[in-house]
Structures are given as structure tokens and as C-alpha cells.
Design goal:
2 copies of one chain form a homodimer. Chain A has about 210 residues and is mainly alpha-helical. Chain A has 9 helices and 2 strands, in the order ααββααααααα. Chain A has a two-stranded antiparallel sheet with strand order 1-2. In chain A, helix 4 packs antiparallel against helix 5, helix 4 crosses helix 9 and helix 5 crosses helix 9.
């Protein structure tokens, strides 16, 4: 197909496709004349991938490029590739003054995971635990095991399709899946809270004094 | 205690405390002289609450004020109060062209929850489902039940402490808990992914051709 057909098939304007070509994010098509190039289904897949990445909330174009270059690296340890690709995802604005993550280290070890201070989620966990501390919310072993018990089986189910994928497919799936199921998880949790609060609370008479009085 | 002692106990600078007083977010202390006021433990609790809210990523001061005014409303349906307070939390930048949430409505009904187009998580869910569609990731009934089965028991455990709280305490707990356990959930999920990928993948010889070749 020609670039105009690639634009129509992907829903991405030609000017944007030309930007992807110039930036090296999208490979040039097979030249059929000095001014024409032919694009195939692999180009359409690539445009859809770039589109999914550029549409992610908070993912700047520099990080899109970084993730694409990890996906394109033909060699390498798949675990490391997936770690780097997921590490390029937002949030980035979680500051932490030192390279020490004392709370996260204790929690990660108690969960039976490997502690790696260079994996960004370690910093995210430290910051989450500090946020709970500052607000006076608990995170003892009981509470943490509740999150582990819910999330580890979920993570296993999420990763199951990767068994039949090659490294490149697995890295793409890991990046898209990590980022795009996160908002689903948060939305379903908030909806579950509301559902449970509604179904547990007896209907309140608005004229009655509330529980505080 | 005097305002300087309140600053020391809370770790919040006096200038910030004076800002909270001017903005009506913090109640004035009991006047003991024309230039002095006495603050009690209820003021310290309030400063800690304001602090927890203002430290939340992406929560602007206008929304902090909105949440505080919901917390301070002495009357009202607790379910509605919690819904409004949670509805004031980020993310806000999820645009949706229409007031129709066809995918979210179908999913919410299939999960057995009540569909309410005005609850912000409904819009978040619609946007999450659209994101999955655009990236070609699946969200069929099997996949959704996996999230429900993990998240509903978790939500139940999270809400359990609210049974012994009055409305005001429950609204505070709902707002802080919703916002502050979210980063914990996302961090633990990413750590679980990495842990599972590492433990499932046989060690790769870096000299060997990878799975793609």
C-alpha cells in the first residue's frame, strides 16, 4: 500500500507518518519509484504500536523512542529487555533523595521477590510506603500479604500469554500490558469500593443526625 | 501549643500553617491574647490531613479544599459524601468526547456493579477500555473476571476498617486510602511481573542467539 493507504488504514495522518519516518521510528517502505514507496502489514503493525505508545498518558516522545529501540534490539537477555522497557514507562516524577530504599527493601524481601534498587518500581514502592506513613495509614505484614495475595495470581494470569511469544513480542506485550491494564485496575478498584460501600451501608435518612452526633 | 510548636510537631513551616489559616483550611486556635492562639491535638490531626492531601501527586490545592469541605460537611448521605470525595481525586485529564460510556456500561453491568455515568471511575474505565482496544489488547469476559476476582476481595479487605468509623472518619479514610494504596498496588504488580518473568525464564547465555533467530 502507499503512504496514503497506510494513513487511512491506521487512522494516523500522513504528516505524522512522515514524522515517524524522519525520526527513524518507522522503517521506510520499499521504493517503487523515486517518489513512491510501498508499505506492508508490518508497517501497519508498527504504526499501531507507535500510536499505542504515543497515546499513553505521560509518555513523552523521547521515552517512546527509547522503548522502540529496546523492542528493535535483536539480541539480549529477554528479562533485562523487559525490565528496561517497563522501566521507561511513567511515572517519572517520583523523587527520592537517596539511592537507599530501606522500606521497599524490607517489603520486597518479605514478599519473596528479588530486591533490585535499579528497577524503577522499587523507587515507586518506597515512595508509596512513605506516602502511607505520612498520612498515618498502615502497611504491616498482614496488609501487604493482602496485596500480594491479590496481585501475584493476577500477574501470573497476565503473563501467561507470553509463554508462546518470542522476545520481541514479549517485550511489546509487557510494555503495553503494564501500562494499559493499570488504569483498568484502578478504575475497577474504585468501582468495587463504591459498589461495596453502597451495598453495605443501610439507607440513611437525610433528616436524621449522622453517626458523629 | 503555640503555632511554632504546631509547626515543630507537624513538620510544616509556620508560613504554610498561616496560609492554611488564611484559606480557612485550618481552624484558628483559641485566642489567649490579641497576638497568641492555643492549638490542640485536633489542629495537629488537621495539619497532618492537609499535608497528606497536598503531598498527593497531581492533587491541586483547589481539589484539596473541595475534599476538606466534603469532610467538614456535618450532614449528608455517607455514600454520597465518599463518592464526591473520591471523585475529587486525580486523574482529571481523561477526556471523553461524549457523556456515553458504552463499553464501561457493559463491563460494569457484567461485573454486577451499579452503572453511574457521573462517578468519575466510570469515565476512567471507558478510557482504559478504549486504550486497550487501540493497542489491540484483549478485555473479554474471562480477562475482566480475572480483575474482578483479584480486586473485589481486596476492596472488601480495604473497606473493613470503615465499619467502626463515623461518617467523617470514613470519608477521610476513603480519600486517603483510595489515593495512597494505588501507587502501592501498581508498584507491587510491576515487582510481581519482574519476579515471575525472572523465575520463569531459564537463564539465557548472552552469546547464544535469542529466541527470535
Amino acid at each position: 500500500m502507499q503512504i496514503s493507504e497506510l494513513a487511512a488504514a491506521s487512522g494516523v495522518p500522513i504528516t505524522t507518518l512522515k514524522f515517524y519516518l524522519r525520526e527513524g521510528m518507522l522503517q521506510r517502505g520499499r521504493s517503487t519509484s523515486p517518489t513512491r514507496a510501498e508499505y506492508g502489514p508490518e508497517h501497519l503493525d508498527r504504526v499501531r504500536l507507535i500510536n499505542a505508545l504515543t497515546n499513553m498518558r505521560g509518555l513523552p516522545i523521547a521515552k517512546v523512542r527509547e522503548i522502540l529501540s529496546i523492542i528493535d534490539a535483536p539480541q539480549g537477555d529477554p528479562v533485562e529487555a523487559m525490565g528496561s522497557a517497563i522501566g521507561a514507562l511513567p511515572p517519572y516524577d517520583i523523587a527520592h533523595e537517596s539511592a537507599d530504599y530501606p522500606h521497599a527493601e524490607a517489603v520486597i524481601k518479605s514478599l519473596g521477590f528479588t530486591f533490585d534498587p535499579n528497577f524503577p518500581a522499587t523507587r515507586h514502592l518506597e515512595s508509596a510506603l512513605e506516602g502511607l506513613d505520612h498520612a498515618g495509614l498502615e502497611w504491616n505484614e498482614n496488609i501487604l500479604s493482602r496485596y500480594r495475595d491479590a496481585l501475584v495470581p493476577l500477574a501470573e494470569a497476565e503473563l501467561a500469554p507470553m509463554k508462546s511469544m518470542d522476545t520481541q513480542e514479549a517485550v511489546i506485550y509487557a510494555v503495553l500490558g503494564t501500562a494499559l491494564y493499570e488504569p483498568l485496575i484502578l478504575a475497577i478498584r474504585r468501582l468495587a469500593h463504591r459498589h461495596l460501600i453502597e451495598s453495605q451501608t443501610p439507607t440513611v435518612d437525610p433528616e436524621a443526625p449522622n453517626a458523629r452526633e
